[in-house]
Known about the structure:
The chain has helices at residues 2-59, 61-97, 111-122, 135-142, 148-153, 175-186, 198-240, 242-250, 255-298, 310-338; strands at residues 101-105, 127-133, 163-168, 191-195. It is α+β, with helices and mostly antiparallel strands. It starts with a helix and ends with a helix.
Amino acid sequence: xxxxxxxxxxxxxxxxxxxxxxxxxxxxxxxxxxxxxxxxxxxxxxxxxxxxxxxxxxxxxxxxxxxxxxxxxxxxxxxxxxxxxxxxxxxxxxxxxxxxxxxxxxxxxxxxxxxxxxxxxxxxxxxxxxxxxxxxxxxxxxxxxxxxxxxxxxxxxxxxxxxxxxxxxxxxxxxxxxxxxxxxxxxxxxxxxxxxxxxxxxxxxxxxxxxxxxxxxxxxxxxxxxxxxxxxxxxxxxxxxxxxxxxxxxxxxxxxxxxxxxxxxxxxxxxxxxxxxxxxxxxxxxxxxxxxxxxxxxxxxxxxxxxxxxxxxxxxxxxxxxxxxxxxxxxxxxxxxxxxxx
Length: 342
């Protein structure tokens, strides 16, 4: 009898010990590898949501294609304006190089002293380049201005002084720096006269400022359009899956768990729209590049249309995907708070 009772007591103890061992093991996993386990579960959850959201888009190809196409047109407009600004900056840079600072030296300054002065000016961090123009070079340039060349030939001596052609840095961005440079050059003893069309430069700077502001405003408006279109698409998707969301909430799912696949749906919509927008922007250059190159050749210019770089293309696609996710989050935050199981 005693041995039988002892065996029964041991059998009772064994489940208790096993239960205690399981609890201790669970505590050890939480204390030690719990964070790693949670990260693995978190990663698996997002990979599953990422993949399932892509498959769900494929189940409604026509509706998904319409949404992506509309978003792509909006994003392509933003990309086109960015491309216009890039080419405008290139054109402005070409115009900038056509208006350097002309430095006319005094009559007693010969070419050797002019070269010494040019070497000292090249050390100035605000100066891009300095070119010495001799009297003979100046005379040859002067002859290109119609009847002035014949008047020069009638003179016994060349009246033109040695000149320096100075190209400053950042003329399109820092007007105060250019004015300071001009005043500094005027104070040099070797300089007789300094010429630069500051009014023309100020007009060019104002045009660049307007272009940047206009680009920022248009981008902001198109960004809001992408948010609203993506948000409306996600809202319709939520309404079509209302019963599924209710059942998921009844079994204890959190709002963040429910929202994850919808956020990835917004990501895919924005990503594919960005890729399509980049293709549209590239196709827009095809009919324009030929006429622009021909027009540039007529003016003896090396201007050619620039396309978006790889970094700018990646930025365009990344921003469109980010806007898609943000538009989804804005709708999900509002709609899931209102969706409560009865």
